[in-house]
Structures are given as structure tokens and as C-alpha cells.
Amino acid sequence: MPNYENLYYSHSSFADQLAHQFVRSVEIDLHSDTKGGLYADPLIWRLSNLTAGANGTAPWYDPKMYEPGLKVFHVTDMDMNSICHTFIECLQQLKVWSDAHSTHVPILVDLELKCDAPACGHGGVCAEEATSWSLDRLLEVDREIKSTLPAHKLITPDDVRGRHTNLTLEETILTHGWPKLNDVRGKFMFYFDNDPEDTSPCTRIRSLYRSEGHESLQDRVVFTNSIEGDSDAAFLKYNDPTGTGQAEIQRLVRKGYIVRTRADTPIDTILNKDLSMYRASWPSGAQIVSTDWPAYGMAARYDWDYAVQLPNRAVARCNPISAPEHCSDELLEPSG
Q1: Cα Rg of the chain, angstroms
Q2: What are phi and psi of 224, to 5 degrees?
Q3: Most buried residue, 189, 204, 274, 327, by most Cβ within 10 Å?
Q4: CA dihedral 232, 244, 264, 23 (to 10 degrees)
Q5: For residue 102, how many other CB atoms are within 10 A of its CB?
Q6: 41 backbone φψ class: left, alpha, beta (φ>0; ψ -120 to 50)
Q7: CA-angle at 320, arms to 316 and 325, nearest 5°
Q8: Per-residue DSSP letters for 142-153?
Q9: Prior bond of 267 cis (ω within 30°)
Q10: What is the Cα–Cα distance from 326 to 188, expressed in whole angstroms?
Q11: What digits encode the pLDDT tens for the residues 54-84?
């Protein structure tokens, strides 16, 4: 039985997260909607006798929900509202903030491709397009990113490989490293969150995205959550930094990968007031420390003053594992 307390939180606007919560990595849940309107009248509204549409009684109305394109929300038919309802709208919001703060460190965007249909047996969405990702639907992610963000705002696998076209993506980052910080200020890097070895029809994300001659993500926009030793390996997800996890993340960071870990898990960290992941995540050297609690007050309903933030309102820090000796936290992101 799912713990519905996992739904008892919400996030501020992207502008607020970036400007006031000092966030530089955001997560966006994507749902495919090739025809439009698939998610416009969720079951939770109908069970509550709420009607969708411009003149309906539902809590919100967005005409773009009736148009084809990638939609953004947490759980199909249950947890539907978000700070932006379409992927393009989310990208537009991020771009507006970025254009006004052009010296920011790269913003790393976690894309979780969803294929949930939890209310299918109860009258909710259970159409095929909600529960699988074809290659064309994956490439729609690329298309919407490129239609909203110009090339100079992106860090793509081809940008990282650069002139090293004879090397795989992994060989490039392990041999030549990543672009220098000053060359990627004001840019976005996207990566898929989905597990790299999942071969179910629902989430064959990585194998499809790499297919047809794109093993090193040539001509792709998004980095995969990959496996060490594979040609597309540049970003790796290692969610548990505790125990042996911390040393493993440190090893991967030393080699040259970008690693994402977590400071907490929904919702056990909060209910158990367990700081083990939080304490292990910082010395791990993972470049991305993910949390559902970026601001003080979000955990107040659980009688705990918990938030995940760097000291002194910083948005980034010199990596404890891989940064050069001359690195200075204050110079990573100048104000303005």
C-alpha cells in the first residue's frame, strides 16, 4: 500500500527555487500526450464531482492540457497540479530566469519519464500512450527542448565530445574532462532519471534513446543515466550515499563522472528524522545532491526543522573530491 504522505508536499516556482532556495538542479516529471487531452480530466476531479474545462468547477484550468505535447505532473489521475503543466511552459520559465542571471552555474535538469496509470482499473487513464515510451516520443523531449532553448543555452553530449569525435562520450569525459565552468555559465544540462537497466516496455528509455547509431548520444540533447564502462556513461545516478555508497560515489567522481545522489528519501527520512543520508551525501563529492526539502518550513507539519542547503546561502561549492586546490566557493557563481 503506498504511503500517501509522499504527496503531502509542494514546491515553489522555478524562479523562487533558483533565486531564494539556492537550487541549481530541478526535477521535472514528464508524461507523453501525443494527441492532447489525455490528462485534462483526471479521475480525482470526477470522483469529487468537479468538472474540467474553461467553465468547470475544477481547481485549475489550462487549455494547453488539451493540446499535444509533453505534460508535467506527479501522479496520473491523482496528483496533477504543478508549477507548470507542460514541458514547454517549464522550459520557458527556466529560460526567463536564466536570461536574467546569465552568470549562473549550469542548471542540471532531472527528467523522469513517467508511465504510471495507477487508477486504470477504476476509470482513470490507462491508454497505451500513457504507459510506454517509443523512440519518437523520446525524441519529442529533444524537440521541445530545442524549440524553447537556443543551442547556446544547452550542454549536450556532442558539446562535451567536441572535436573528439573518434572517442565515445565516456572516453571523452574520462580522458579530457568536462567543459570549463566559464564556458558553460548560463546553460542547462538535461539528464534522464530512469534506471539504466530497466528493460520493461514501460521504461526502455536508455536502450531506445541510444538506438540506431546513437550509442554515444550523438545528436541527442539529453544525457542518459548510464552504467560505468558503457559508451554513453557520463552521468550516473547513485542514490544512496550511506555505507559503502559514499566511497563508491567518491571513486566515480574521481574518475570524472557527474554523479547524482540523495540527501533524503520520501518520506521515511522525515518520519524517522534520519540524517544518515544527509550527512553522507556532502563528503561523497556527488555534484548533485537531490532533496524534496530545499527550504525551511517544508517539514514543519512533521515537527522537524529540516532543509537541505549549503552554508552561507551558497548555490554551489568546490567539490571536496575533484576540485583543484585554487578553487574558491565565492567565485563559482558571481551575483548578477
Answers
A1: 20
A2: -90, 155
A3: 189
A4: -50
A5: 11
A6: beta
A7: 95
A8: HHHHHHHS-GGG
A9: yes
A10: 25
A11: 999 999 999 999 999 999 999 999 999 999 9
